[in-house]
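Summary of Year 1 activities. Much of the first year was spent building the evaluation harness for sequence design. The harness presents a backbone, in tokenized form, and records the residue chosen at every position. We chose the following record to illustrate the format because it has been used consistently in internal testing since the harness was completed.
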């Protein structure tokens, strides 16, 4: 995302036009969201140590904002995955040549939410998995759809799920989500953490991301939690 996008004062007439566009965009986002079937291949819920999932699906502000409202999630961090540590800075990643994707690292309790359930939310409300190297207004490989697996089990679940959804032909096009090994996750700058929670009136958030949170609440009411789990609150509790 562009930090300057839709920022600054807006003249009266332009403000009315912008409001109309925002409402239209929110409506379109609501229409695109759908509950896809649960994964046939998944881990059974069971007590055990906390696990992590690393997912990329466009601007990490919205992806983080959605998973912060999911039952069983203990923390969600915005960061970069797919490239080297030396290039894991926002200004560099934004150039689109680092191999990184804006990603989130989700720490979750496997007794309360399964890896497959996190992927169900990912394909249902987080993003459009048929968009190649872009998501909404953001274009570039850094906004690609990608699942970074931590082990062979996560890889098996992710690959089987994509095949399941493609076979069901639930989307207008083929799913382009990549399944890549999670070689490293690098924390994004502090101002990116909890961005949606801290800036709910920021135009980019209003236009692109708040509809995703509303869709989660509407389509997955049994897993939706409020208030959200934030990086700030998780840090205080650690």
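For this record, the design step produced the sequence shown next.
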């Amino acid at each position: 995302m562009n930090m300057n996008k839709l920022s600054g004062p807006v003249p009266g007439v332009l403000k009315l036009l912008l409001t109309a566009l925002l409402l239209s965009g929110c409506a379109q986002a609501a229409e695109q969201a759908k509950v896809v079937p649960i994964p046939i291949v998944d881990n059974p819920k069971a007590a055990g140590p906390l696990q992590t999932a690393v997912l990329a699906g466009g601007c990490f502000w919205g992806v983080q904002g959605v998973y912060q409202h999911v039952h069983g999630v203990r923390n969600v961090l915005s960061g970069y995955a797919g490239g080297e540590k030396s290039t894991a800075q926002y200004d560099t990643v934004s150039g689109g040549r680092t191999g990184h994707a804006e990603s989130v690292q989700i720490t979750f309790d496997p007794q309360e939410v399964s890896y497959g359930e996190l992927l169900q939310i990912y394909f249902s409300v987080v993003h459009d998995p048929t968009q190649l190297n872009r998501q909404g207004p953001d274009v570039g490989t850094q906004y690609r759809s990608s699942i970074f697996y931590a082990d062979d089990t996560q890889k098996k679940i992710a690959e089987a799920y994509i095949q399941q959804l493609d076979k069901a032909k639930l989307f207008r096009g083929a799913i382009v989500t990549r399944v890549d090994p999670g070689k490293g996750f690098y924390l994004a700058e502090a101002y990116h953490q909890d961005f949606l929670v801290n800036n709910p009136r920021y135009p980019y958030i209003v236009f692109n991301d708040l509809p995703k949170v509303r869709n989660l609440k509407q389509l997955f009411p049994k897993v939706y939690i409020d208030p959200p789990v934030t990086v700030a609150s998780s840090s205080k509790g650690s």
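The chain has one domain: 12-237. Quantitative recovery figures across the full test set are reported in Table 2.
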